[in-house]
């Protein structure tokens, strides 16, 4: 099997995921993954191709667009190739790019209608909650803005999430990274989505606090949502510097919610647009206030909760 996707080794050989050192004034962290527990391998689910040139890639992207959207994994893309792809990209192009320099991996996302509906629902829920708390001025909704790490280490690369939220700090300084990222996959595999979660968390030095992965399963009308965070290997209460604390973290899925279409309801059945045609496993989805705004909540401020009613509505609207 080709080796590209991020995959943890067994815990019996566990070593720190990365050693990080501050780059003064840049806001970025330089990551040495020589002690990483991460290996790379391709999966076979996401449509893939070998990079054969910019024109050929743009033609394939157009084919995906003509087919209603989806994802494409492009193998063996060098940083120089990626630069040429960016230069050839039109401002009107709506596709999103994820690039890992060390892995020579490019994932192109041409949003489908279900992809955009799911993204919009989650985006609106977060916007509504921040508005209701009177905090619209304390958060930037940067949607699919490009975030890039150009440092020369194995996690150098670039990514455009489906939705990104960046808090406005008290001193009005601009953060390098968002605190919350949403990544949606339609034809993209769950494994590739997890690759993106790993990239966001590790490359940002865990300044990205939460990554929500939303995997759409069109044949069955199911939606799987995973919450990924940086999890510390240190014992609770241990005193650590920020760099030490960051170096001791590793990405992990801490919660999974599945929204399933009830048996007997097909993709052509009008009942598919009824929220009651769906069931939710593992309860509600939650984004912590402190993780999003990077401060503790005050009176009237609270975690953002995606309850079962919302999740059923999410499925009904996504698959309409």
Structural description of this entry:
- The protein is an alpha+beta fold.
- It has one domain (5-318).
- 25% of the residues lie in helices and 31% in strands.
- The strands form five sheets. Strands 9-12-13-14-15-16-17 form a seven-stranded mixed β-sheet, with helices on both faces. Strands 5-6-8-7-11-10 form a six-stranded mixed β-sheet.
- Helix 3 runs antiparallel to helix 7 (308-318).
- The two termini are 37 Å apart.
- The relative contact order is 0.13.
Task: Give average pLDDT, whole number.
Answer: 82
Largest sheet: 7 strands, mixed
- Rg estimate, integer Å: 20 Å
Residue share in helix: 10-25%
Q: Secondary-structure element order, as H and E?
A: EEEEEHEHEEHEEEEEHEEHEEEHEH
Number-wise, the strands total 19
Low-confidence stretches: 1-41, 238-244
User: What is the number of independent domains?
Assistant: 1
End-to-end Cα distance: 37 Å
Measured by DSSP, the beta-strand proportion falls in: 25-35%
Structural class: alpha+beta
The strands making up the biggest β-sheet line up spatially as 9-12-13-14-15-16-17
What general form does the structure show? globular
């Amino acid at each position: 099997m080709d080796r590209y996707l991020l995959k943890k080794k067994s815990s019996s050989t566990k070593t720190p995921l990365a050693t990080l050192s501050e780059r003064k004034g840049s806001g970025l962290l330089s990551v040495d993954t020589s002690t990483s527990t991460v290996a790379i391998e391709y999966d076979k689910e996401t449509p893939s191709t070998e990079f054969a040139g910019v024109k050929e890639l743009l033609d394939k992207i157009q084919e995906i667009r003509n087919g209603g959207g989806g994802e494409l994994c492009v193998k063996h893309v060098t940083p120089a190739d990626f630069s040429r792809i960016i230069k050839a990209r039109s401002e009107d192009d709506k596709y999103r790019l994820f690039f890992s320099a060390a892995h020579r991996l490019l994932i192109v996302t041409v949003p489908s209608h279900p992809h955009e509906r799911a993204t919009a629902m989650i985006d609106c829920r977060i916007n509504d909650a921040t508005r209701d708390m009177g905090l619209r001025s304390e958060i930037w909704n940067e949607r699919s803005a490009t975030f890039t790490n150009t440092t020369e280490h194995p996690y150098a690369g670039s990514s455009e999430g489906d939705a990104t939220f960046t808090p406005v700090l008290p001193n009005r300084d601009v953060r390098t990274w968002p605190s919350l990222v949403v990544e949606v996959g339609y034809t993209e595999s769950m494994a590739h989505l997890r690759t993106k979660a790993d990239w966001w968390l590790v490359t940002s030095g865990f300044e990205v606090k939460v990554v929500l992965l939303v995997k759409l399963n069109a044949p069955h009308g199911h939606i799987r949502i995973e919450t990924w965070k940086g999890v510390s290997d240190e014992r609770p209460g241990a005193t650590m510097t920020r760099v030490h604390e960051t170096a001791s973290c590793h990405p992990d899925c801490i919660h999974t919610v599945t929204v399933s279409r009830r048996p007997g309801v097909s993709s052509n059945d009008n009942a598919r647009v009824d929220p009651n045609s769906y069931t939710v496993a593992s309860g509600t989805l939650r984004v912590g206030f402190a993780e999003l705004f990077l401060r503790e909540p005050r009176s009237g401020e609270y975690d953002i909760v995606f309850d079962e009613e919302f999740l059923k509505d999410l499925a009904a609207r996504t698959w309409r």
